[in-house]
Design a protein that fits this description.
Elements: H1 5-18, E1 44-48, H2 59-62, E2 69-73, E3 75-80, E4 86-88, E5 93-96, E6 105-108, E7 112-114, E8 119-122, E9 124-127, E10 144-146, E11 151-156, E12 159-161, E13 168-169, E14 182-187, E15 190-192, E16 210-211, E17 216-221, E18 224-226, E19 234-235, E20 240-244, E21 247-249, E22 256-258, E23 272-276, E24 279-281, E25 292-296, E26 299-303, E27 306-308, E28 316-318, H3 340-350, H4 360-371, E29 392-393, H5 403-416
Length: about 425
């Protein structure tokens, strides 16, 4: 049968709308300033000049400005969110915490929810805490989370402590498009001391990172997890990603794990994950019966992971053995895993916000994680309470061009020190 041109066009349109959306490549980036497809030279520059929770010049109001933007900080100190988290709903935003003067920006009594595509979040301290609320009162913010169905999100060199749900999570909660959140990168962060017996409505609830709701292609690399009871991290069913070169210290119940299908979820695929080059160090009160680096089941690939209990005895790789894969089921293009010794050194030196000038909280967490004295806590008051920082101001002068290089220079200074990143040594004498 010969089809008319209108009918051919109708058939083509029907076919195109029935096809799944094309997925962009999943690529790892080693650059200090990740490229999410945003033209930084063309973006508007928004200056944060106030440490108030809301109003003119605040971080909250800056993120409401439509259009591609770089958010820079003319002030350093503590932003009390007053128990109202910040939602990032506008796409193409680069939040450059490295532009703040020392000691940088700390958010307390609230967290950040990323609900837009092409977001970079760097060099912030996020410390929700219990806000003085009663136990089981229902105050339960994450530190940083994705929500909806965002794609191409980098949470990089951030320090998140004292959350009441997860420290940093990747979620597809209520995606407006029906597409899952995807290409989420959690890189070089400190995720520690999520409060346990505190204000979460369920009671004890100390969690590190949750990947859920079908979220795909999540890269969790180079982070320090310390003193979170569970989810260090956890992948739920029908998710995918990699867990590479992280250090997990003093887990309460378990370290890395993935969900096991139940009778109600038997129709969902198991998580597709690659777990490579991680180090796990049990604390004195870590659950001794766990005795494993990984718990649960997955379509999983495992290589070069090391773990030790409180007495220095090696941990099993799997708590309950299951068939593992010979090749990673997923892997971001360009990611090269380090050995565990190199990973431990990288995390020790360079994880968290502004590691060249770590604040007292991060210094304590790192020292306790590697010194064997880390512990699970129920309130920030057990470890000195919310930080008190005298505000510091300066005026950020943003160049018209070559902003990527400018941001990289500032990032290198707060990561490596005033001289920035040293040049690579030649392999020849």
């Amino acid at each position: 049968m010969k089809l008319s041109l209108p009918l051919l066009l109708l058939c083509a349109l029907s076919l195109s709308t029935s096809l799944p959306a094309q997925t962009a490549p999943w690529k790892w980036q080693h650059a200090l300033v990740p490229d999410v497809g945003m033209d930084l030279d063309a973006a508007q520059v928004i200056h944060v000049t106030s440490l108030a929770s809301k109003g003119k010049g605040t971080l909250r109001d800056s993120l409401k400005v439509p259009g591609p933007k770089i958010v820079v900080f003319d002030v350093a100190g503590v932003i009390d969110l007053e128990m109202k988290g910040i939602e990032i709903k506008e796409p193409q935003v680069y939040i450059a915490g490295q532009t703040a003067p020392a000691p940088g920006i700390t958010l307390i009594k609230g967290g950040l929810s990323i609900e837009a595509n092409q977001v970079v979040l760097q060099h912030l301290h996020v410390r929700p805490g219990d806000a003085g609320q009663p136990k089981k009162s229902g105050w339960q913010p994450d530190g940083i989370t994705t929500s909806g169905g965002p794609a191409d999100v980098w949470i990089d060199h951030c320090s998140v402590t004292w959350s009441l749900d997860e420290g940093i999570s990747a979620s597809t909660y209520k995606s407006p498009t029906g597409e899952p959140a995807q290409r989420i990168f959690i890189r070089n962060c400190i995720i520690a001391e999520s409060l346990n017996d505190a204000t979460h409505e369920e009671g004890p609830h100390s969690k590190g990172t949750l990947v859920l709701d079908g979220t795909q292609h999540v890269a969790i690399a180079g982070n320090l997890y310390s003193s979170n009871v569970e989810r260090n991290p956890v992948f739920k069913l029908n998710t995918s990603g990699v867990v590479v070169n992280n250090v997990i210290a003093n887990p309460g119940q378990r370290a890395i794990h993935a969900s096991v299908p139940t009778a109600e979820t038997a129709n969902l695929p198991r998580a597709k994950i690659a777990v490579v080059g991680n180090a796990v160090f049990f604390g004195e009160k870590s659950k001794r019966s766990a005795r494993a680096i990984f718990e649960g089941t997955a379509d999983g690939y495992f290589k070069d992971n090391e773990g030790y209990d409180w007495f220095g005895q090696p941990l099993d790789l799997l708590r309950a053995p299951f068939p593992t894969l010979e090749q990673p089921p997923v892997w971001p293009e360009g990611l090269k895993a380090l050995g565990t010794t190199a990973a431990i050194w990288q995390v020790t030196r360079f994880a968290g916000a502004r590691p060249a000038e770590r604040d007292a909280i991060d210094r304590r967490i790192v020292e306790q994680a590697f010194g064997g004295t880390a512990r699970v806590i129920d309130s920030q008051e057990e470890v000195g309470g919310y930080p008190k920082i005298e505000p510091v101001t300066h005026v950020v002068e943003v160049p018209e061009k070559k902003r990527t290089e400018w941001l990289e220079k500032l990032a290198a200074e707060v990561i490596y020190g005033p001289e920035g990143k040293p040049k690579a040594r030649s392999s020849t004498p």
